[in-house]
Amino acid sequence: MTANHFVTGGTGFVGSNLILELLAERGTAVYALTRRSSRQSAEDRLQSALRHAARAAGYDDALDHAIAERCHAVEGDVLSENCGVTTGGLPRPDQFWHVAASLRYEERYAAEIFRTNVEGTRNALALARSSGVDRHFNYVSTAYVSGCRMGLIREEISSGQTPNNPYEASKIQAEGLVQQSLDLRPRIFRPSIVIGHSITRRVSSGFSGLYGFIKRVLRLRQLLDRIQDGLASRAGLRVIADPNALLNIIPVDVVARQLVRIGRSGSRATVFHITNPTPPPAVEVSRVIFRELDLPQPVMVSDSAGMNWIEQKVEEGLGFYKSYFRGTRVFERTNSDWTLGVSVPEPGYRMDSATVAEYVRWYADVLRGTTDLLPAAEAAAA
Ligand SMILES: NC(=O)c1ccc[n+]([C@@H]2O[C@H](COP(=O)([O-])OP(=O)(O)OC[C@H]3O[C@@H](n4cnc5c(N)ncnc54)[C@H](OP(=O)(O)O)[C@@H]3O)[C@@H](O)[C@H]2O)c1
């Protein structure tokens, strides 16, 4: 018997890896809400994104047949009512996965962020309902709906937290809509910062999170060198960081595997943290990034006292990413681990400095233009 899944965001980083994981099981068919572009049909965009994701994950052409035969684009847009889809010709999905979102976080994009992430979720819920989804509405949220809250972050719907930016605020609101849709037996998945594949270290699209931070550091370096030749290479800059902060990074294939395994389980829990139980110290990750970008090590300080104007400019320039280096959060994983039945630690959790360096080096090489970037990723990385 065929299990049908409906997925939004299938051309993106997490969604494409989720689809690959779903297709790995024979007899699964995937219908993916996809926008057309001015040059490509929805079907061509989806097929191309999935093939690139498969290459980044280290598959040769082994999965191409499954992608072509068992994955179908459904043209639409989460900004339209019912996502612009007439459900008549679609098979009833066993599960609905709402992954599409805007990953922008800047205040100037707030209207677009809320439209895509909140109204988009409302439209996805309507589509799931009209398609008669059988088992679950699975919503991919973020561990950072915790906002400014520190300490132990529970796998539960929380309220009263202060978001750091419009992205977090929009994901909090969207969780609220999903949670209320009890008729769809909702599940909320909260990944932390998603990075490349645990074996290949590569990414095929979507350079947010850690990659956005690496790019920001490189841009700041170029800016300093424009102000004065060689300025960036002189003595280490002072940067504000909490020595105890942990950077919760988790490989995309681990995320996709856990989503699908929990999706197929009979768990009655609603919220699942898809996070790394052994995250590396944020300060160590930033040391690796500075080293891989050939920058002198920053000097970590606790506040801005005595910073010169250049250091203040860098501090300002780090923007959203500053929150990565402040405070300590521990994400509970009781529901996830109980459902996954984890007894052996997942190898992809391992984030010692050498491992982190491999992820960072791959992207630093992409930014320097010394390694191939898959064509689908070029626009996102620019
Ligand atoms: N990446 C992370 O580190 C991370 C961490 C935690 C949670 N998450 C969550 O994971 C989900 C996926 O993130 P990602 O990293 O995969 O992002 P991504 O690579 O930027 O992909 C976003 C996806 O959403 C689609 N989309 C955006 N607006 C749409 C619209 N109006 N109609 C239809 N589709 C639309 C995009 O389609 P187009 O190709 O047409 O633009 C793309 O497929 C998001 O919900 C995000 O909040 C991500």
What would you note in describing this structure?
40% of the residues lie in helices and 14% in strands. Strands 3-2-1-4-5-7-11 form a seven-stranded parallel beta sheet, with helices on both faces. A two-stranded parallel sheet has the order 6-13. The chain has a domain at 3-196 and 248-277 and 329-349: NAD(P)-binding Rossmann-like Domain (Rossmann fold), CATH 3.40.50.720. The chain is built from twelve helices and 13 strands. The longest helix has 21 residues, at 110-130. By secondary structure, the protein is an alpha/beta fold. Strand 1 (3-8), helix 1 (13-23) and strand 2 form a beta-alpha-beta unit. The chain has helices at residues 13-23, 42-56, 64-70, 110-130, 166-180, 209-227, 252-264, 282-292, 309-318, 334-340, 353-368, 375-381; strands spanning 3-8, 28-34, 71-75, 95-98, 136-140, 151-153, 186-191, 193-195, 238-240, 249-251, 271-274, 299-301, 329-331. The termini are far apart. NADP nicotinamide-adenine-dinucleotide phosphate (NAP) is lined by residues 8-9, 11-15, 33, 35, 77-79, 99-103, 116, 120, 140, 142, 171, 191, 193-194, 205-206, 208-209.
